[in-house]
Known about the structure:
28% of the residues lie in helices and 26% in strands. With 814 residues, it is α+β, with helices and mostly antiparallel strands. Among the domains are: 4-309, Distorted Sandwich (Beta-galactosidase, Chain A, domain 5); 735-810, Sandwich (Maltose phosphorylase, domain 3), CATH 2.60.420.10. A ten-stranded antiparallel beta sheet has the order 1-2-9-10-11-12-19-16-15-14. Strand 14 (173-176) and strand 15 (179-182) form a beta hairpin. The longest helix is centred in the middle third of the chain and has 21 residues, at 322-342. The radius of gyration is 28 Å and the shape is globular. 56% of the residues are buried.
Amino acid sequence: MQFGHFDDQNKEYVITTPHTPLPWINYLGSRDFFSLISNTAGGYCFYRDAKLRRITRYRYNDCPRDSVGRYYYIKDGSTVWNPGWKPVKTELDRYRCRHGLGYTVLESEKNGLAASLECFVPVADNCEVHRLTLTNRTDAVKEAELFSYAEFCLWNAVDDANNFQRNFSTGEVEVDGSTIYHKTEYRERRTHFAFYTVNRPVCGFDTDRDSFCGADRDLDAPQTVLAGSSRDSIAHGWAPVGSHHLHLALQPGESTSCIFVLGYVENPKDDKWEAPGVLKKDRARALMEKYRTDAQVDAALQELHMYWETLLSRFSVHSEDEKLDRMVNIWNQYQCMVTFNLSRSASYFESGTGRGMGFRDSCQDLLGIVHLVPERSRQRILDIAATQFEDGSSYHQYQPLTKKGNADIGSGFNDDPLWLIAGVGAYLRETGDFSILQEQAAFDNDETKAQPLLEHLRRSFQYSCSHKGPHGLPLIGRADWNDCLNLNCFSDEPGESFQTCSNLESGKAESVFIGGMFVKYGAEYADICAHCGLTEEAAQVRAQVETMRAAVLDAGWDGAWFVRAYDAFSKPVGSHVCDEGQIFIEPQGMCVMAGIGVQEGLAQKALQSVQERLDTKYGIVLLQPAYTSYRLNLGEISSYPPGYKENAGIFCHNNPWISCAEAVVGHGDRAFTVYRRTCPAYVEEISEIHRTEPYVYSQMVAGKDAPSFGEAKNSWLTGTAAWTFADVSQYLLGMQPELDGLRVNPCIPHTWKAFTVERLFRGTRYHIAVRNPDGVQKGVVRMEVDGKPQTDSLISFVPGKADCYVQVTMGTPE
């Protein structure tokens, strides 16, 4: 069942009913100011940090769901309704939600009065712009009352949700004409405030939630709206809100627009003054003046459209598969940018109050966006590196506002250091900017300990070298990529004492998955060293890589697939000797991507085991058989019911690893099958089962052991976005950046006869046409660059070249 459709020409997903299985949302904002908005106008906004600079409230898991947003109430006679249906939920005569790139438009109609609500965050300003256009489609005069509504969060979202004994006394507002200022905390800090304004005179306002709603009422039937008159309330503590009241009269056929701006203002740090609580409004007024007219709003929308057009023009494909083109050219890259901006911090599944920016997460996000925003990728890398410790380990998370490591979570995830090499390697291959390696980056945000970025990479690699277990495999620490696989915990074997490894450094649990990472990203680090002229170090690194390769093939091979790990007592996890959890997806993907076992034929055998034991119609599950009871020696992974999350759920994040691995061994048919099973555009028709948005990836889908098999969760902010784009762009379509140029090495279904790619690479636009006359899955037999044949599939980079035309013919090499 579908609840809407793709509009590829306008790069929109059009939702045709408010009754979607879950709230289907969009993200507004591209730099510092971000908003979440659902198809029924729910959501919230914040400046940079969803925890420390939350501007509007959102009540998670509330009933009814998605019950707080930026709402507009229209009172037309005795009928009250909202352009987005909620919260009044009056049955509409017409409804449509268009989620586009950085904007959302809600279009509806009731009793001959049509509404169009355009919502977006301008490219360069810290505000939301809402333009509500009302059109009288009847042959009689329409008089309507319009009420806006936004509920202010008291900045720190955690404190706002917990510290009521203080917060009920601190909320402060100020009303100046048509502008409502939210200045809670301004008396104390005098650095930031918010405002909510409209571009025309108002006939009333409210800033106190209880006054707006009335006693014993909720947002679905606020007393102010039903009465048709605001109370001009001023909030003193309790729950400050912003609501404007406008009276509108429309002649038959007439349209009128009201432009609302919800903005954030931060005074310069050196801006001192003495009057406590007195707002400096000049910056706010300047921002308001930029969005007072329709012409100004139209210009800002056009700038936003051009921003996304420019970004997405950096990589595009044209094939015979419109769903593939749709995802590659629009939605996958769009999601990669949103995920890069926010890591995993603020979604409808993450409250924005805990995780902040993830070290591992942000490094992986770079894989999907280095080609889009290389300059921002550069700064992100330096921010990430500054959260590393001197020994090469790192904070697992940091707050985006302060860029300081999250001490509550700390460190100990032993895959983190290698992900830094992965992210920096992706940046270097994309940009050729080796100057970043000489940029100074602090350790633990202590500038007195700053070292060149190259030294950070060196310590990342050395940390993995110095943290090995009894089998010569990397120690897992608290966990590796699978946060829930906590092996330095307890023993549940009969006759063995229940003991905990309180010091992770003494924990002996090992990760074959990190072993695969060590081989893959260690080889990339060796290439970086060689490119920098560090010949001796490159040789030493390669020797360590080969030692690890041998250890994985020895202790990490189980006979038909790669072992997942060894627990604190050196017992295998993810082995045929286990009663449950015999095979895991992660090492099969990572080890084969690293090339381990390819020449020996073991990689192909491991991938065949994945197909036989882990495949389902909705994707590849993380492990089998699922754990049916809690295992003290495995930790959180076994705390989930079978089929959910890490306990045999379909973790979409690592499904691309298998697709990439299949491409490594030349299986184009299988690689594309794996790709499309979790790709949103291909599962749109089962939205009633899948439930999450059909235009973006989700983190996980319930596995075959679950009662809700096929149901997705945790959409939008997931490493699935970046890894899937890396899979489809580099492994399937075969556009592979390398340190010395761009390699073209597709691995595609044998039924594909041709496709073209346009790819901006280091300032040169590559126009690449691929033909597959013999129906092969992998192999390039002929390539011409600007009309000249060349024997290698690597196109050497030529600085200053505007365009490069490439003709590729696939076939079976002699």
